[in-house]
User: Which sequence fits this backbone?
């Protein structure tokens, strides 16, 4: 990179971040990591390696024991409550426990993410319909989520995470309950959002979703980064994916 080129903007910047749970469980130790806007990064590692903790720190659902975390230019140690609420509207997170409201319908669960952003009802319904089409859940629109399988609940949680067209998408084992065909459906949707500019951090045990890609794969072991894949490759516009051409209208609210 020449001295005249502007440094690419970062979506995530962690500097020597550690997290200790009482009494003395060390979940993360001195983790430093930068993620550029528009990247897809995969976090791998065994259960207990610290992947979920790292994702929760990025939403400030958890606070670090030490270290600095910046998301979209905001220092999460210093951010005000009001600014944190605004920032979270631009983050879509799909975690392993789903956190769906069991007696609410699929559509109502997805709508929750948009209601906090004061999205117009007509826009909400359009987005819900399109997301359910992409995720193979159209017939479940009015079904209470308590009546869904685990795999269907997982797809609803993913749809809710994507409903606000977030700038940052955090997904914890997003394909853990899915078969190979549905996994590809979900990953195609993630790639589409990335092509529209979203940054993705995906924690996964599923090697099939990142094998053969050029995206960074970062391995955590006992709370430390032990392998980074390609170190922060040069940012470039992603090439159009012909497989996603059918879904170009997803980002239109008509």
Assistant:
């Amino acid at each position: 990179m020449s001295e005249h080129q502007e440094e690419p903007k970062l979506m995530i910047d962690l500097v020597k971040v550690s997290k200790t749970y009482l009494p003395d469980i060390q979940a993360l130790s001195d983790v430093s990591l930068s993620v550029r806007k528009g990247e897809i990064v995969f976090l791998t590692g065994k259960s207990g390696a610290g992947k979920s903790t790292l994702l929760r720190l990025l939403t400030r659902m958890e606070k670090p024991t030490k270290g600095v975390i910046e998301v979209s230019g905001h220092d999460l140690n210093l951010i005000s409550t009001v600014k944190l609420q605004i920032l979270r509207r631009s983050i879509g997170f799909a975690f392993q426990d789903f956190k769906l409201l069991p007696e609410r319908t699929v559509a109502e669960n997805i709508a929750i993410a948009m209601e906090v952003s004061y999205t117009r009802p007509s826009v909400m319904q359009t987005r819900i319909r399109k997301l359910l089409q992409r995720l193979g859940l159209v017939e479940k629109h009015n079904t209470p989520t308590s009546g869904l399988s685990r795999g269907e609940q997982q797809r609803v949680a993913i749809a809710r995470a994507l409903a606000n067209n977030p700038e940052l998408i955090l997904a914890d084992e997003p394909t853990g309950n899915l078969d190979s065909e549905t996994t590809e459906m979900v990953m195609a949707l993630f790639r589409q959002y990335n092509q529209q500019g979203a940054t993705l951090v995906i924690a996964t045990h599923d090697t099939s979703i990142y094998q053969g890609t050029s995206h960074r794969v970062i391995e955590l072991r006992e709370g430390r980064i032990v392998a980074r894949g390609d170190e922060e490759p040069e940012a470039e516009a992603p090439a159009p994916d012909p497989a996603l051409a059918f879904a170009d209208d997803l980002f239109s609210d008509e």
